[in-house]
Fold this protein.
Amino acid sequence: MKLRYNFRVYPRACQLPLLAKSFGCARVVYNDGLRARNDAYRRGDPFITDNQLQKIVTTQAKRTAERAWLAEVSAVVLVQSLADLHAGYRNFFAWRKGARKGPKMNPPRLKKKSGRQSIRFTRNGFQLRDGGALYLAKIGEVRVRWSRSLPAEPSSVTIIKDAAGRYFASFVVEVSDEPMRELDLEETDTGIDLGLATYAVLRGRKVTSPKFFRRQEKKLRRAQRHVSRCEKGSKNWRKAKLAVARIHARIADKRRNFIEQETTRIVRESQAVYLEDLNVKVMGTRRGRMGKSVNDQSLAMFARTLEVKCGRYGRGFVKVSRWFPSTQLCSNLTCGALSGPRGREQLHMRFWTCAACGAAHDRDRNAEINLRREGRRLAAGLAES
């Protein structure tokens, strides 16, 4: 399994122009390669192979006056930028042929200069020095703030500049699975009911919704108002844009840290996890307060992170269909009637009484019990097959 380890890096002032030049050259090479293939397609020429494209937009382009400055950055950066273009085309063609599952994929598009920029170095383009510094080809040694040691030798490193002006080094490391001590399945497995008022309901406990965006919304609105009052392109406008980006970065960091901590705790205390498969993408596009709250929760990231950790540490993971009526089904073993609250207008009902057996239910805890039972049934079916 390949994992990414991200660390904050602090380039020197003299290295900032070199990094900016590397970001720009990687973007230019990517766009040149994309234009060359699009022009060949319009003319009806054969598809330009990867090796031919690399010769055209890097080797031959460096010898021209218009692109001579490409030689000022590491060739590894340019090659890896073209590798991203090749991967984009392969994924697009695989989707067209039906070999790649998932949502619709579009062909690669031109890159524009944005707040987030990145370049990638392979093993022949970087080196970890004894003093803890990271050496990058044609940039020099960059100071890294190591929060932990890498478990193995990295195969590549991506240097990222985010919209808030921070620099990060993202190392790709090959690691092996580390199964945890097995727990009693009957006592520790849990269903997880995701929501908005309560982030998640597990067996025996509830996770309160942190609402990181909501807590910073007033401050963010004030900062965005300041941006709108500045003249676009001015120095004050750039400062105001940076202030907005820093607020967004702080929100994203807190949310990511919260998800990492909660998923790790769940994996440690549960032998199996049964998670409802919500259509978060559709939920987040709804207008009004609900769509904003769904995006604030970042439930899709939570589900992906939990699934990866369960696979790495030897825990069971089952997704329950989004059409399973976990909220409406009575969890009483002798009942099981479908008499719970239905429809969006009933979302405010947190407690309800079964019309068939008279049992009183907490809406979220009732859903967790039903998800746990359905997850056990699905897990048993997978084990038999």
Q: What stands out?
A: The first helix runs from residue 16 to 43.
